[in-house]
Amino acid sequence: MLTYIIRRLFYAIPILLGVNLLTFTLFFVVNSPDDMAVSQLGAKYVTPEAIQSWKKKNGYDRPLFYNSDAAGSGAVTETIFFSKSLRLFAFDFGRSESGRDITTDISTRMWPSLAVAVPSFVVGIWVNICVALLVVMFHATRLDRWIVFVFVAMMSISYLFYIIGGQYLVAKTWRLVPISGFHAHGQFWKFLILPVLVGVVAGIGSGARWYRTLFLEEANQDYVRTARAKGASEIRILFRHILPNALIPILTGIVVLIPSLFMGGLLVESFFGIPGLGSYMLDAIKSQDFAIVRSMVFIGSILYIVGLILTDISYTWADPRLRLD
Q1: N or C, which end of the chain has less CB nearby within 10 Å?
Q2: What does pTM read for this prediction?
Q3: What is the DSSP letter of 78?
Q4: Of 152, 153, 147, nearest to 131 (Cα)?
């Protein structure tokens, strides 16, 4: 197992380099530092002197990959690629275009994002699995058809509708929780109830419908018919046979959600006023703060690769027949 993990970590290095190089190309080749300066300064203040001053202030006045004017290793280190991209591998994110330390911002904002994302993730999976198992019990009945219709209808509704509807109904009309905001100290849980509730309800349609498909596929297997023939109850069949054998595709689907636990949700954090990484990323895109966007893309790539490794390891727990050599 340890050998497999080390091998996968080594495989991750060229993947991260490729993502880093692609991101660098998009930000500094397709969109040149002069274009970045113009977008930051605004058309009113664009002059050759202002552009050059902005580039020098932010370290964009250097060559992209090779500095022929520098001696020794400086020919490589005194370049935009080294200072703005390769340093990300040392988790040196530098400063944003506004001068703020990106590492400090990320370490501060990650906790509100996790406070919203982790409960939504855990409760959402638990609710979706329970609802899907309940629907499987009534498979091929009128209730099953109506529930599937409701699932499809919930999938068709915009996520924004759930946010606005939850704020209007739960916060404004019933006055059960605050409509938005976040306080890191005190009764901060009051500000998390509505975002978590919205996230869970909005995901039932797609999540429960997908789990229902997985469970129905397992329900048609021979081992399920054998269990029924031996007199096993439907509850035992669902939880002792169908659910454990459907864990492999469930774990595969969960991995795509792991980066969102750290990165946060753009809409949720923006509408509920949560100072997390999702709103941080959205504000950076609006202000065209390319340093923050590059850092967040790099972090997202690392989280996704870590999620893939954890998923492969969890396969051995879900199915002991799978061995990682």
Answers
A1: C
A2: 0.84
A3: S
A4: 147
Catalogue the long-range contacts made by 308-317 (C-beta closer than 8 Å, 24 or more residues apart): 308/8, 308/255, 309/5, 309/8, 309/9, 309/12, 310/255, 310/258, 311/251, 311/252, 311/254, 311/255, 312/4, 312/8, 313/1, 313/5, 314/251, 315/248, 315/251, 316/1
Can you tell me the distance from the alpha carbon of 282 to that of 267, in angstroms, rounded to the nearest whole number? 9
Please indicate whether residue 215 or residue 279 has the higher confidence score (pLDDT): 215
Q: Which amino acid, one-letter code, is at 294? A: R
Q: Which residues are paired to 95 by β-bridges?
A: 101
- Which among 128, 122, 258, 116 is positioned nearest to 206, based on CA atoms? 128
How far apart, in whole angstroms, are the C-alpha atoms of residue 155 and residue 150?
9
Q: For residues 153 and 204, what is the distance between their CA atoms, to the nearest angstrom?
A: 11
Domains and CATH numbers, the chain: 2-90 (no CATH), 113-318 (1.10.3720.10)
Closest CA to 262 of 124, 88, 115, 127: 115
Q: What is the mean pLDDT of residues 294-310?
A: 86
Residue type, 217: E
**Terminal Cα distance for the chain, rounded:** 7
pLDDT digits (tens, 9 = 90+) for 86-121: 888 888 898 887 788 999 999 999 999 999 999 999
Tell me the residue type at 234: E
Cα–Cα distances (Å) from 24 to 13, 50, 66, in that order, read 16, 24, 14
User: Which residues, in sequence order, are bridge partners of residue 101?
Assistant: 95
- Classify each residue of 79-95 as buried b or exposed e, where b means 16 or more C-beta atoms within 10 Å of its C-beta: bbbbebbbebeeeebbb
Cβ-based neighbours of 208, under 8 Å, separated by 6 or more: 127, 128, 131, 132, 135, 151
According to DSSP H, which parts of 157-237 are helical?
159-166, 190-219, 222-229, 234-237
| Phi, psi (degrees; rounded to nearest 5) at 31 | -115, 100
3-state secondary structure of 141: coil
